[in-house]
Amino acid sequence: MKNENYDVLNVEDGRHVKMWTKGVPVEEVAKKQLTNTAKMPFIYKHIAVMPDVHLGKGSTIGSVIPTLGAVIPAAVGVDIGCGMMAAKTTLTANDLPDNLSALRSAIERAIPHGMSPKTRGFRGRDEGSWNTPPAAVDVAWGQLKDEFDAICLKTPKLKTTNNYRHLGTLGSGNHFVEVCLDEVGFVWFMLHSGSRGVGNAIGTHFIELAKKDMRTHFINLPDQDLAYLAEGTQHYNDYIQAVSWAQKFARTNRDVMMQNLIAAVRTVITKPFETHVEAVNCHHNYVQKEHHFGKDVLITRKGAVSARPGELGIIPGSMGAKSFIVRGKGNPDSFNSCSHGAGRTMSRTEAKRRYTLDDQIKATEGVECRKDANVIDEIPMAYKDIDAVMHAQRDLVEVVHILKQVVCVKG
């Protein structure tokens, strides 16, 4: 079965997967994961696959999974609410300092990032968290605390001091803070992060509860990471409450980081400027109730962004590639979704095996960023061609702005 803009992967019993992947590579193991997920009896209509699709835990990253009467915690993942935030400023390229390393250093001082390496036998405060959280964190945490305390009454092990100390921090892996220029030279601030340690704890806890439920009821699955929670059960209700809170934490986390990013830039660039001329704050790992094809269904976007008609979103490239501010076209077959980035073409281990530090330095030429062995796994060549990814989803979004980073802070 063919369509002008997407391919269809037929599964069984009329089930199928719609894939916006024309012109981009898709791993066979990812197709197998998609097939396994599509077989679950509570999938509504079909699974929609974005062009950045690649192997994930249980379900592929870059997929949109609509369900009726159940939710798959591993499909949402452990970085609940992970997403992007971008804000246009009134600064232009001419306002940036000649010494971009000073700008990068100011950002790195203002936003905790990274994490304490396990090799150090770390037992104290995570280096990527606050020692003494600033006032903005106190204010933001005050808006989250009461609901979190209610969640912790049911699951006490979630309550640790790191949850508060992680608010307004970046994390590690592919999370980043960037200063970018758009197609006409305006400066943008952009960042990528999620719910940090507390989202991981919530996700991990409910993934294990779902697996336990499957064993208790002798339910066989094509992949144990497709373990689900059935609507109407206590575990389901508790998960929906906790995951919704984690998504609020993630959005707030990005808001606080953006405040601190702007303040840091003002210490280097003394010219007065305004921000949030155009601003976007969007999740790409999350679940929420939406109305599609005549029904209220749970939509899990695992590495995908909401792209309703007129809705702004962010599709980043890699450390050396351009990124896009997009406007949704509201394609119903994709459940009003688009990709969340370029998507990896290889594992982090394979990237480190295949590429050298010299490759990383060359690939990030012109970008003020880390250029060391610990970020080779984020080398641009480990990702799909962002231009091909964008072309494959041209009926899902239209491009509003094209951004190119000049400063990148990695965790």
From TrEMBL:
| Record's cofactor remark | Binds 2 manganese ions per subunit.
Which PROSITE patterns does this entry report, sorted A to Z?
A: UPF0027
Q: Which residues cross the membrane?
A: none
Q: Which SUPFAM superfamilies match?
A: Hypothetical protein PH1602 (SSF103365)
Q: Name one GO biological process term.
A: RNA repair
Q: Which reaction does it catalyse?
A: a 3'-end 2',3'-cyclophospho-ribonucleotide-RNA + a 5'-end dephospho-ribonucleoside-RNA + GTP + H2O = a ribonucleotidyl-ribonucleotide-RNA + GMP + diphosphate + H(+); a 3'-end 3'-phospho-ribonucleotide-RNA + a 5'-end dephospho-ribonucleoside-RNA + GTP = a ribonucleotidyl-ribonucleotide-RNA + GMP + diphosphate
Catalytic residues, per the record, are 340
Q: What EC numbers are recorded for this enzyme?
A: 6.5.1.8
Pfam family for this entry, one: RtcB
What GO MF annotations does this protein's record show? DNA ligase activity; GTP binding; manganese ion binding; RNA ligase (GTP) activity
- Subunit: Monomer.
What is the protein name given in its UniProt record?
3'-phosphate/5'-hydroxy nucleic acid ligase
